[in-house]
Design goal:
Radius of gyration: 20 Å
CATH topology: Glycosyltransferase
CATH architecture: Alpha/alpha barrel
Shape: globular
CATH class: Mainly Alpha
Largest sheet: 3 strands, antiparallel
Distance between the termini: 16 Å
Number of strands: 16
Oligomer: single chain
Structural class: mainly alpha
């Protein structure tokens, strides 16, 4: 796809966003009694009894706040609907912060304070404030930021602890999911705290927040990026000793562009130059090691580069689209643009569910969508499956292709 085709490419992506992704969540997943249903199967059938996670609901709020800001007020009601439910049900009035998981009636199933979830609360609420001017959203976002800094910041070693209990006291099991290590620090949480602070800085230019973001970017570059391999390390003890040697290609390419965005918004020229150099190396490594011949992105490899999971998950494809195009914008190297175009073709032809809407969560190595009988993670909506990665990729590409 030549650069002269940018307009057609943007039109195609916009049609996917406004004709498929957003309508699925506005229509099928919106609970008329409040909030959004927690799951929908591969057949598009909604499970009204499914639990509801704070991460997914915050991501829905972010998605429709961004749609309001970029596409118009036709999405405002959905953004406000998501905000109202988040505030009324996920917010812990007694101890502050967001509960991890609710039942279908909006009552807590897990009241732990996962820092990852607090970060997505900041990300979503600051975007709602950015799109609508809501002072209530901004105040809540600032409140979550202060809770993270008060309870989870490791002032001695740098970075942030993974999770605490409802009253912000230590936990023995801090895992984000059953698939993660029980480690006190992780790449994933730090990446998304950084992402959240980036968005909060757009609407609240606080000097302390600027300092914390600068420190977080530095920790990412010095501790989380492995400068020998240009991959993220994934799990750490409190003193930043790595606990695992696996490679997550989706997080590598996602992190490459989120780091650049964070440094750009912070506005430190020297730090930005350092970040851009690292981001290009990460994108180059992902391009060299993480792509299949069909243009799609592999999921995960072990420390020797052997694939741990050869299936094609939906979200790394979305992040590869933005990450490779971001590398092209930084370098002018057409190889990156071609890679972005090829992963978009894979998304368009394989990942998008033309029958039910949204995207297939997981595909086999040959590009065939997994069924629920084959894989428990196969769904159209679930505790991790929501419009954040794919809608964000569309928003990013529409803006980037417009120059």
């Amino acid at each position: 796809m030549a650069e002269s085709d940018n307009g057609a490419w943007a039109t195609e992506i916009r049609a996917e966003l406004t004709g498929n992704i957003l309508p699925f969540w506005q229509g099928r997943m919106r609970d008329p009694e409040g909030g959004f249903f927690g799951a929908a199967g591969c057949d598009g059938v909604v499970d009204p009894a499914a639990p509801r996670s704070s991460v997914v609901n915050a991501r829905i709020l972010w998605t429709f706040a961004t749609a309001t800001r970029l596409l118009g007020d036709g999405y405002r009601a959905t953004a406000d609907w998501a905000f109202d439910y988040l505030k009324r049900h996920f917010l812990d009035e007694a101890h502050g912060g967001l509960y991890w998981l609710l039942d279908a009636d909006g009552l807590p199933l897990s009241d732990r304070k996962q820092i990852y979830a607090q970060a997505f609360g900041i990300y979503a609420l600051s975007e709602h404030a950015r799109a609508t001017g809501s002072g209530d959203s901004l105040d809540l976002a600032i409140g979550l930021y202060r809770l993270i800094e008060q309870h989870a910041a490791d002032r001695a070693g740098g970075g942030y602890i993974e999770a605490l209990d409802r009253a912000w006291q230590p936990l023995d099991d801090m895992r984000l999911s059953d698939k993660d290590l029980n480690s006190p620090k992780s790449m994933n949480t730090h990446l998304h705290v950084m992402e959240a602070y980036t968005n909060l800085l757009r609407v609240w230019r606080d000097p302390e927040l600027e300092g914390r973001q600068a420190a977080l970017i530095a920790v990412t570059l010095d501790r989380i990026v492995d400068n020998r391999t240009d991959h993220f390390r994934l799990f750490f003890d409190r003193d930043w000793r790595p606990l695992d040697g696996h490679v997550s290609y989706g997080h590598d390419i996602e992190g490459s562009w989120l780091l650049v965005e964070a440094a750009e918004v912070l506005g430190d020229a020297a730090l930005l130059a350092r970040v851009r150099a690292v981001a290009v190396l990460m994108a180059e490594r992902t391009l060299a090691e993480g792509r299949d011949s069909d243009g799609s992105l592999y999921y995960e490899a072990d420390h020797d580069g052997r694939l741990v999971d050869a299936n094609k998950h939906w979200w790394p494809q979305a992040e590869a689209l933005v990450g490779f195009y971001n590398a092209y914008q930084m370098t002018g190297d057409a190889t990156f643009r071609t890679a972005a175009a090829e992963v978009w073709a894979f998304i368009r032809d394989r990942v998008v569910d033309r029958q039910h809407g949204e995207w297939h969560a997981k595909l086999r190595p040959d590009g065939r969508p997994c069924t629920a009988a084959e894989d428990a993670d196969a769904c159209l909506a679930g505790p991790w499956k929501c419009p954040y990665h794919n809608a964000r990729a569309c928003f990013e590409m529409i803006e980037r292709l417009a120059g």
